[in-house]
Amino acid sequence: MILHQVSESCFAVLNEKNLVCDANSGLINLGGGVVVDTQSDLAHGRRMIELFGKVWPGMPKRVVNTHEDADHVWGNQLFAGAEIIAHRTVAERMPRVAEPKETQQLLKAADGFLSSLLLRVLHPGALAIARQLAQDYDFDGIKLVLPTTLFEERHVLDLDGTEVRVIFVGPCHQAGDTIVHVPGEGVLFAGDVLFRLCTPMGWVGSFARWIEILDLIISLDPEAIVPGHGPVCGIEGAMEMKAYLEYLRNESRRCYEQGLSSLEASKRIDLGPYGAWRAPARLYLNVERAYREFRNEPEDAPWDSAKSFDAIYSVARARGVEVEF
Ligand SMILES: [Zn+2]
Fold this sequence. Notes:
Elements: E1 2-5, E2 10-14, E3 25-28, E4 34-36, H1 42-52, E5 62-64, H2 70-73, E6 83-87, H3 88-97, H4 100-111, H5 113-122, H6 124-136, E7 149-151, E8 154-159, E9 162-168, E10 178-182, E11 187-195, H7 207-220, E12 224-229, H8 235-257, H9 262-268, H10 283-294, H11 305-319
Parallel strand pairs: 4-5, 5-6, 6-7, 11-12
Antiparallel strand pairs: 1-2, 2-3, 3-4, 8-9, 9-10, 10-11
Helix pairs in contact: 4-6, 5-6, 6-11, 7-8, 8-10, 9-10, 9-11
């Protein structure tokens, strides 16, 4: 984990492995401090606080959660007494999508002798992701702390005269997607609207909405973007991800019309330059999302997580790439 100065008053803490759960956090070091996203477990949250502590004068008064996914909210409890700002849907959905019990149980099952044998047979992908997560994360002790300030469209902060715009842009990757724009510093914290140099994963929303929001980010013309995952970039990062989504949607359409399943399509689609991104087999989630759209299924249709991990696992095996999530 490293501390990166993005502008005069904006900083990021980056998880350089760039695998699932390796989410970034941001800091706007003005007006008592605002932290953007709180990491995936308590050890990473504490390390983030320690790194930001090198530049801030005291614990920040405010936190923004860019959406409801676990890897962005599981350090919330470390900010006792802080105002936690998020979109209205984040408070509604967090208890469902970021309930730590399921992940805690999965990691325990992967660690047990008999239960891991069973997992290997029934859900090899779930076993593989549990083993990967156990290398870097410990989800014990996590308690959900919900946002305290909810907003609808946007929430504007004045930090010592610097305007910070907290803007709802969901649902494109998740229902509560929010970006944080600091125009005076030329910085934009994109949450998981932007995955950089790793394969994006989306849960709720549509390709069209996601592409529209990437266009919005490009039109805001920030000098630096802190993505939810991956290294800090400029607008070329948003352009590349937009191109990926458009390419993937087109390729998925072609496969769908040929009658291939989403799993089969994920094994066959030529990834071109995107094959060098981290966890390329996660493309399955994007192909499946495209198929759901072609079938006119609702944007918030639930995901079977064990089945999805198994699919990613089998795509990686079929492609002969490392099994990583
Ligand atoms: Zn994330």
